[in-house]
Amino acid sequence: SVISTRYPTVGPEAYAHKLRKVHPSPKPPQLMRSIIEFFTKEGELVFDYFMGVGGTLLGASLCGRRAIGIDLSQEFVDVYHAAATELNLPIQSTLVGDSIEILRDGHSVADLLGSDKFSLIAIDPPYGDMMNRVKTGEATKHGRDASPTPFTNLAEDLGNLDIDDFFRLFTQSVQDALPFLKDKGH
User: Fold this and answer.
1) How far apart are CA 130 and CA 138, in angstroms?
2) Rounded (5°) CA angle 19-24-29
3) Is pLDDT of 148 > 60?
4) pLDDT for the residue numbered 133
5) Per-residue DSSP letters for 128-178?
């Protein structure tokens, strides 16, 4: 399926983009709401362990779902909290830390879940080392800053790993997340 979209970055339909734009690629809450509505029912639980500035968590709040998010960056989690507050949306549960390690250990996620399980795991992982490269597309064509825009400068950030290490750890993260997904979840 293809969804043709255009989400504004100013005004009320921007969903606090002015705050969330500190992230190099914030997910539009409206898009995430549509995906979450398609795959879950009201009140169900969504998981985004690469939450960034919380587009998935905001999307879950917009459609009456619960969510848990993890991000390596305290700054990004704080921006999510500020955006949810500005939008007068419920603050979903968040963890700050290395999602790879948190999932590998499993106790923090299990403690948050209790006897519940996720109906949907919706992740938009870092892109290997792609964000660490000088831009070559539109920025260059239009004379804008083409500097790299890494998600963080942290060594454990998947976005700072070479592609082989990225794929190995990303694959492991999916395997470690699956036990928390309910039967017939997505």
Assistant:
1) 15
2) 55
3) no
4) 54
5) TTGGGSPP-SHHHHTT-------S-S-TT-GGGS-HHHHHHHHHHHHHHHG
